[in-house]
Amino acid sequence: MDQQTMQQLKRQLEQELQEIERRLEESERPQATELSNYDNHPADNASDLTDQLTEMAMDEHLGDNAEEIKKALQAMADGTYGKCVVCGEDIPLGRLEAMPQALTCVEHAEQKEENLRPVEEDVLSSTPRSDDFIELEEFGSSDTPQDKI
Q1: Which of 56, 64, 72, 85 has its CA at a distance of 20 to 30 angstroms from the CA of residue 32?
Q2: So what's the pLDDT on residue 112?
Q3: Is the CB of residue 84 less than 8 Å from the CB of residue 104?
Q4: Backbone φ, ψ for residue 73 (5° rounding)
């Protein structure tokens, strides 16, 4: 990768990081629309909660993006930018232009996504066996002691 392309990608990353940090600073904690929940319909409370959780999730996503950009900028400073951190192969320039914070090649980016599965999948298979339910009961159930006899 030539120096001019590297500088262009670095400027793009820095601008994106500044924009994310500005948005996070301006982001306000979601507030409830009512002072009292006493006379609210449960659906109104649910709407407020959904709005709050959506805002929090968006802020968390922006924070994750900022961390990825900082890692990419650090890789530029270290001289390792453009190489996959898993296999060491060159990352295609098209991928870097589309996603400058990428630190892995496409093949290893897909592996990263696979690791984001729920932890419950480690315990349960797609076709439950009878002993799967026994293992789950160890974590608690609604059964009373009389039900277990």
Answers
A1: 64
A2: 57
A3: yes
A4: -65, -35
CB 91 within 8 A of CB 109: no
* Residues 76-109 pLDDT 10s: 999 899 998 888 899 999 989 999 999 998 888 7
**What backbone torsions phi and psi does residue 101 show, to the nearest 5 degrees?**
-85, 5
Q: How far is CA 149 from CA 40, 130, 133, 142, in A?
A: 44, 18, 17, 14
Taking Cα atoms as reference points, which of 33, 28, 65, 38 lies closest to residue 49?
33
Where in the chain are the domains?
A: 3-27+41-115
**Residue 99 is encoded by which pair of tokens?**
């996603």
Q: pTM for this structure?
A: 0.64
**Whether the Cβ atoms of residue 73 and residue 14 lie closer than 8 Å to each other:** yes
Q: Which residue has the tokens 């190489």?
A: 83
Query: d(Cα 124, Cα 126) in Å, to the nearest integer?
Result: 7
Helix (H) or strand (E) holding 81: none
Fold of 3-27+41-115: Four Helix Bundle (Hemerythrin (Met), subunit A) (1.20.120)
Q: What is the mean pLDDT of residues 49-78?
A: 91
